[in-house]
Amino acid sequence: MLPKWATHPAGGTMAIMLLFGAAFAIGHHFFYQSLSGNPPPNVVYFRSFAGGLTGQQFNLAVGSVFAFLVNSALGVAIHTAANQALWVAIRTKPSKLGVIDNLATATTNIWNVFDFRLWKSSPIRMTLITIFWILSVAFFITPATLNIKWSMTTSVSMTRVPQVDFTSLNFAEIQLEQSTSPDYRYYNPQYPVLQVVAESTAGGRILPISSPHQNATWVLNFPGPALSCKSLDNSSALYDNITNNILVTMSVGPREDQVRACAYSFGYISWVPEAEYGGSDINSLPFPGMSLSTNNTPYGPPSRGVGPIYASPAREPLTLFIAALPSMHFSNVDQHACTDYNSTSFSQSALDQVANMTITKCMMYNTSYVANFTYIDNIQSIELTTQGSFNNIIGQPGVAGANLVSYPEAGSDKISYNVSLVETFAYQAIMDAFGRMFVGTIAYDVSQQKQIIDTQMAMTPLLNTKEFNFIRPLSEKFSLQELLNGANGLWNGVSVEQAPNSTIPMAGVIEELFRNATISLISNPLFQPNYSSPYAPPDIDVAVTTYGLVYLYAARTLLLAYAIALGMTLLSILLGAISIYHNGGSSYTTKISTILRAAYCIDFSEPIRPEDTDGKDPTPRYIKKLTISFPPVGTAVRYNKAAQSSEGEQLQQI
User: Where are the transmembrane segments (predicted)?
Assistant: First the structure.
């Protein structure tokens, strides 16, 4: 047996429609919940029908269908309750026919909600009508709770990333020299090393390194070479020796006569220490062999890129010297400084040329690199640091084959290799390529009245350091702008001037340039590991970030909208139940048959004229003003008969 409320036409309809509305609302929630966080489907439905529907269009359509079903179900429940309130209103008391018309059509004409007469006639009916119209607004909101946004997803996995392999034989040019045993000698860096180091150093940046993924992050730890740079103490014996060597070179020119003018003045000098092959003494002077007692020694700028590598026993790490001489620069040369000297010392005027000279000494050591790689849309960002100093890198002129490979003894098949020697050659090649970017001079040739640049230093950011502010810009005395301005204004253009205001210290710049060049080696596949090698590094934990369009579901908004709608519907059902009670427990609709049956015994305050019985629109004005009354139903209510006017009584008598 069904409960009594379920068999009641109006009550059952309201309850069942409420349950249906709640069920469709829950279904809408779970449907959107299943899509949340997932990408829109890349499918097309119903291709044969007007091009079909994409997966995105289909999902939005399904959401709109759910909202329509909820709206329809709850709308039926509210409309049913409003019908019960309508019949209570028109049976309770006589009402004008125009008021009854507006009450009956309020569900199809929203403007009737603002008719105060209707609220006075039936507040319950108008409350339900207001809920009916407001409820429709909620169903515009719920389909919009599903949107699309860009989503970021990060996953970590072991991945093979670009790394530098210092055990590779692609760094140094090693040649075999046959003797009683094989002897492998170091000659030069290989071309790829020269290219990578030159490009990185000239640009002052880390070269682009390919990433296995468009958006990825990983941390790379590996041992590698680095430079430690500091200024040379100007009270040290080495500083004094270098000073005298520079002054001698400034004084002694390539000419064979006894006239010693300032043949060269220097603004920049860079060199590396040298040692005789098999010797133990290291010469750290920029111009070895230059002497005041020898007038025939030709001048030549430093050219060796790495040193010392021929010392035995090796005591000094690979070293690079860089000197800045602002007082000796060509724009400030004292032509008489070099003529006043003797065989043992220089005059004060000569010493003034090197009074504010700074010498930076950079030594190579082994350290641990920590490189944090970040790629966003393949845009590279690398945070590079070094940690610790393990040992100095001592240059190697070569290695005997027996020291590189140890063959197994009798009864053993194990061959051992001296991997550290191979790595030393790789480090040495990097230092050689780096040194070639700086070794040389920027000098002024007095005899030829011109500046001579015998270095690639001007291609690097080293020119922008505070030690070399005196080089940039060039002296106005030698600028074309100044010469033309003094020649009756032949040139009316004005060039941009750059103020020498750099405060960047040279030592830090050199260290950073070397680190950048070292990490830039990864950009060349020739320096990356061959993973068939036993020395190949392991894979690295890589955090891969993917970006894509996914569904974003505002569940709280949808549930709140539906909760309000269900609550208002429940209130409507309660008001409908009250109306059913006042209708004597009966159920009513607005069907024509219901209206005809209820109107069978109604009373009109005036009779309707025969020509107006066709029912066509618009309704005559006098009919709207008619007062009608319905007969009572049951004992729940009592009705008063509509009062007739005198004209109505006469017509009734006729």
Answer: 12-32, 65-90, 126-146, 559-581
pLDDT single digits (tens) 43-60: 777 776 766 778 888 898
Report pLDDT digits (tens) over 466-498.
888 888 655 545 566 666 665 566 677 777 766
Cβ atoms 570, 63 nearer than 8 A: no
pLDDT at 499 over 90: no
Q: Which residue has the tokens 């922008």?
A: 464
pLDDT band at 410 (very low <50, low <70, confident <90, very high): low
In contact, 185 and 424? CB cutoff 8 Å? no
What burial class does residue 578 get, using C-beta atoms within 10 Å of its C-beta: 0-12 exposed, 13-18 middle, 19+ buried? Answer: middle
How far is it, in rounded angstroms, from Cα 349 to Cα 346? 8
325-361 b/e (C-beta count within 10 Å ≥ 16 → b): bbbbbbbbbbeebbeebeeeebeeebeebbeebbbbb
CB distance 637 to 89 below 8 Å: no
Q: How far is CA 244 from the centre of its chain?
A: 55
Three-class SS state of 324 = strand
What pLDDT band is residue 279 in, cutting at 50, 70 and 90?
Answer: low
**DSSP label at 598?**
H
Report the alpha-carbon distance of residue 569 to residue 573 in Å, rounded. Answer: 6
Cβ(224)–Cβ(439) under 8 Å?
A: no
Question: Residue 183 pLDDT more than 70?
Answer: yes
Report which of 148, 155, 104 is spatially closest to residue 128, judged by C-alpha positions: 104
CB 582 within 8 A of CB 87: no
The torsion region of residue 403 among left (phi > 0), alpha (psi -120 to 50) and beta comes to alpha
In angstroms, rounded to a whole number, what is the distance separating the alpha carbons of residues 648 and 177?
Answer: 138
35: three-class secondary structure by DSSP: helix
Which of 118-127, 193-202, 227-236 is the least confident region?
A: 118-127
**H-helix segments, 181-283:** 191-203, 237-251
Runs of H (alpha helix) within 213-347: 237-251
3-state secondary structure at position 150: strand
What's the gap between Cα 406 and its chain centre? 51
* Lateral strand order in the sheet of 95-96: 95-96, 627-629, 603-604
Q: Among residues 272, 226, 172, which one has the least CA distance to residue 513?
A: 226
Q: How many CB atoms lie within 10 A of CB 395?
A: 26
Rounded to a whole number of angstroms, the distance between the first and last alpha carbons of the chain is 56
Task: Give the number of other Cβ atoms within 10 Å of residue 613's Cβ.
Answer: 8
| Integer Cα distance of 346 and 409 in angstroms | 64
Residue showing tokens 């993917």: 546
With 0-12 / 13-18 / 19 or more C-beta atoms within 10 angstroms meaning exposed / middle / buried, residue 538 is exposed
Binned at pLDDT 50, 70 and 90, residue 293 comes out as low
Distances (CA, A) of 117 to 112, 165, 522, 578: 10, 92, 86, 22
Q: How far apart are CA 286 and CA 591, in angstroms?
A: 113
pLDDT of 395 > 70? The answer is yes
Structure tokens at 135: 């409820």
Question: How far is the C-alpha of 303 from the C-alpha of 544, rounded, in Å?
Answer: 47
Contact 531, 384 (CB under 8 A): no
8-state DSSP, 616: P
Tens-digit pLDDT profile for residues 592-603? 777 767 666 677
Q: How far apart are CA 328 and CA 351, in angstroms?
A: 10
